[in-house]
Structure formats: C-alpha cells, structure tokens
Amino acid sequence: MDNSPLQVVTVPTAPYPDQRPGTSGLRKRVYIFQSRRNYLHNFIQSIFSSIDLRDRQGSTVVVGGDGRYFNRTAIEVIVQMAAANGVGRLIIGHHGIMSTPAISCVIRKYKAIGGIILTASHNPGGPDGDFGIKFNTANGGPAKEAVTNKIFQISRTIEEFAICPGLRVDLTTLGKQTFDLENKFKPFTVEIVDSVESYANLMRNIFDFAALKELLSGKNNMKIRVDAMHGVTGPYVKRILCEELGCPANSVINCVPLEDFGGLHPDPNLTYAADLVESMRDGQYEFGAAFDGDGDRNMILGKHSFFVTPSDSVAVIADNIFCIPYFQQTGVRGFARSMPTSAALDRVAKATKIELYETPTGWKFFGNLMDAGRLSLCGEESFGTGGDHIREKDGLWAVLAWLSILAIRKQSVEDILKDHWQKYGRNYFTRYDYESVDIDAACEMMEDLEIMIADKSFVKQRFAVEDKIFQVEKADNFEYTDPVDSTISRNQGLRIIFSDGSRIIYRLSGTGGDGATVRIYIDSYEKEQIFQDTQVMLAPLATIALKISQLHHRTGRMGPSVIT
C-alpha cells in the first residue's frame, strides 16, 4: 500500500460569465455542472479564494447536501479542493446528507469558518433537474452580498484551481479519516458525523420534549401526518418525531432521501404537496406538515386540510411565542418578515410592543439582525419560518413550534387561526408564480412597470373593479437600509400600496434554475370579513395586478404555474 503524501496539483482553467450566486447560491440545471468543463471546480475555487488565506489555513468547513442527484460527485470534488486550499478539517454529514438547518447548527457548534451546502432547495432533482451550491459563513447563515459579489468577481477572472485528485473519502463510515498531503505539516482531516444528532440536541434545548411526547404518544395522542417529500428531512423526522417523541412510524411518509425526490417536486405548497393535502381531507389527521428538499421550508395544515399561510403561521407563533420554553428563557428581541410577506406579523408586533423589521427576501438579512441581538422570530411568505437558534429558516423547528402551541392551547389548528383573526383581523394573502418565463420578456416587463409606477401621476390613480375602488397611495422599488451596518439593498421588488393598506408586489425570483420566475404578491387586510375565501376576496386586486403589468400579453403566459 502506498503511504506517500498525496499530491496537490494546480490545474489551468477558463472562467464562465454566469456564476453569480442568487439569494440562495448558484443554481443551474444538472447538465450545466456535468457538461461544462471545470464548471463545478471553478465555483468551488472561487468560494475558497474569497476567504483570506490566513483564515482558511487549518480551518474547519462543514459540507452537506439534500441528497439530490450529483450530490456525491460534488462532495468528492469539494473534499479534494478543500485539502488543496489549506482547509484543515471538513465535517461532512453521513452519506453526504445534512439538512440546511442542521448545517447552520453544526457550523455554529464547531465554530467553523463556513459551510458549503449542496442543494437547489425546493427545485426538482434528478439528472434532468437542478443542482445548487450555497456558501454559508461563520455565523451559520447565507453569505452576505459583499461575499457573494467577491465570489462572483473571482469566478469571472479565474485562471487555475488547486486540487488533490488522489484523495478519496468514505462517506459511509462515521468517524475521522486523515490524509497526509505534500508540503503540508499537518494531516488533512475529514470527519463524517451523524447528520441528525447535533440538530436533535439543539431542539431538545428549545422545546419541551416531555410535553410534545405526551401530545403525540400519550393517552389522548394527536394523530399527525408529516410528508418529507423524499428530501433530506426524512431522517430528522423519523429520529425526532417517531423515535424520540413516540409518533407511530406511519405518521411520517416519504422519509427516504432520493436523488430525484421520487419524481416529486419537493416544494411544500398546496400544488406540489397535493398527496398530503388529499390524505388530510377526511379528517383522520389533526395536524399535517410537509418539507422541501433541504429541510428549511415547511407547510402547515390542520384537520380537513385547513391551510395555514406562511404569513399567518409566523404571526400565530409570534402571538404564542412563550409556549416555547427557549423564548421564556431568552425573551423576545424583535420580529421580522420579508417585504412581500403579509403584514399579519406587524399586527402582533404592534400589540405586543415588540420591534418589527421589514427586510428584502433572503435569510441573510434576518441573520444580520439576529447577530446584533435585535431579532428572535422571523418568516417569509415562501414557506420559511425560523428563530435565532440558527441562521437559516427551519422547517422542522416550525413544526415543533406549532405542536408546542397545540399542546398548550388544546385547540385545533383551525380554531387557533380563527381566534387569531378575531383578535387581530385577517390579512388575506396570495402569491402567483409564473415559472420558466423568457428572461428577456420578464426583465422588459419589470423595467416598463418600474417606469410606470415611478411617474408622479401614478400616485393617486384610481382602479375600479366591480364595486371596489382602489387608490394608489405609494409606489416604489423597495429599498432597505440595514439598521445594523447601514448597508443599502436596492431593487428588491416593485410595490404598489393602496390607501386601504392593500399591496401588490412584483418580483423576479432568483431561485429558479431555468428561465425567470415572475412572482405577484397580493395582500389585503380585513377587520370584519375574516372567514371568506382568499381567492374571492383578492380577485379585484388580482385583476388590477394583471392589468397594470400586462403580464399575460408581455410573457405569453395566460395563467400562473402555482398559486399559494
């Protein structure tokens, strides 16, 4: 057996112009990573080169992914390149699998300089699906814009990358593996860890597991249905909900992570989690939940498939926050929501006299507030909810939060929501997604729309639909000044705000792998009519949103791909 040190080599390469990370890293079709020479290597080198050599030397980096197709291939390259770039230790999830919330947890626990997350989140997987690479920094959260811009700039001028091609790691065996490298004084260490345990331990310190065990497996146990959608959350829900909290094994479904998510689109909404919605209709289950590919998003359902919007979900958790022991100990520093998310959380913040922050879309904005000690709970309308225990949205945390509320309130999900609406009024909210739209057509539409709403004559304009009249009070392209470091984020979404507080928002999403996704958000508050159908209540505003944007005409798309 050859015990000589492994060789580190420098390989010439040529840059690609399209490796700009979006709000959730670099996402492309799998075939892009497979067919373009050194495409993966270039981006990984750009990540390592963005870290100062002094910080990189001997450092710890966490690596894991949602198990989608190309995950293992990418990890092999990352291991070889980390070793060649001076990283001292890699911590990798067993079989290369680790949820995004767990990676955030492990980065913080081991004081790593960062983590590389291999996921395209809720996008489809498999050879014909998407693949993604995201870099999280030492706080456990997504890299800030200054870092992702640096990575992009390096990727545009890269001429070579360093790699240790002979290094082979065994992802199937827990424990440490060490490798001697040429010209390195210390061996390079790879530690394969139980993907679930660090995260499960964190949850034990946040929630009252005894109360949850009584709820889920006690004398009058609640029947629940949880769909992991063949994503990374499967092992976590089996270990925590079934093995630890006593849920019957058949309470959780689709728990084996698959490279193509079993042909499912791992996006926890009413469209793509239709099987769960259907199984909840007959009323045999009192609580339902679904998760996306990498475990950071969640959908909450009550009996008979009663749907809790993500905007309402974070508001209800905020209003019942002391049902969670963690917040009894830490207190509540602040609430936050992304700008497109409905203003339901604002009403709780106002009533409880807790500071409310409205940020652009992207968890990194919440992380900055958390690091400054200003934020405890936050949420996004895109099925993301989380606390300051980590720096990512956290699907399973949100489910445990809801179960904690149910354990104490001893009411149904629907009754809790209806009580909430009676107390605060209701924000009717919907989002229309137009996926895989021609990028040029989408950009031109947004540019023309911005010119229109920026015209002074647009304010005070009236739009009449049926018997309703909506008058524009304010229109802008949302801009955010971070209260912590004063950095300014511009062009975060076009807003039209009407005199009654109703809002129409247009955004181009950065999380799609093919074409553009145009999102239209509609939010309208009602104090009295709180038990009506959402789409009926919002139909007039939807008509106005389409009329103003001329979306059907401009994109050729007559209907949305998804309505949530």
From TrEMBL:
Keyword Metal-binding: yes
Alphabetized PROSITE patterns for the sequence: PGM_PMM
Residue ranges annotated for the Alpha-D-phosphohexomutase alpha/beta/alpha domain, each copy included: 19-160, 198-301, 329-424
Swiss-Prot/TrEMBL keywords: Cytoplasm, Magnesium, Metal-binding, Phosphoprotein
InterPro entries: A-D-PHexomutase_a/b/a-I, A-D-PHexomutase_a/b/a-I/II/III, A-D-PHexomutase_a/b/a-II, A-D-PHexomutase_a/b/a-III, A-D-PHexomutase_C_sf, A-D-PHexomutase_CS, Alpha-D-phosphohexomutase_SF, PGM
Principal subcellular localization: cytoplasm
GO molecular function, one term: magnesium ion binding
Gene3D superfamilies: Alpha-D-Glucose-1,6-Bisphosphate, subunit A, domain 3, Alpha-D-phosphohexomutase, C-terminal domain
A biological-process GO annotation: carbohydrate metabolic process
Family: Belongs to the phosphohexose mutase family.
NCBIfam families registered for this protein in UniProt: PRK07564.1-1
Protein name (Swiss-Prot/TrEMBL): Phosphoglucomutase-1-like
Annotated source species: Sphaeramia orbicularis (orbiculate cardinalfish)
UniProt gene name: LOC115436535
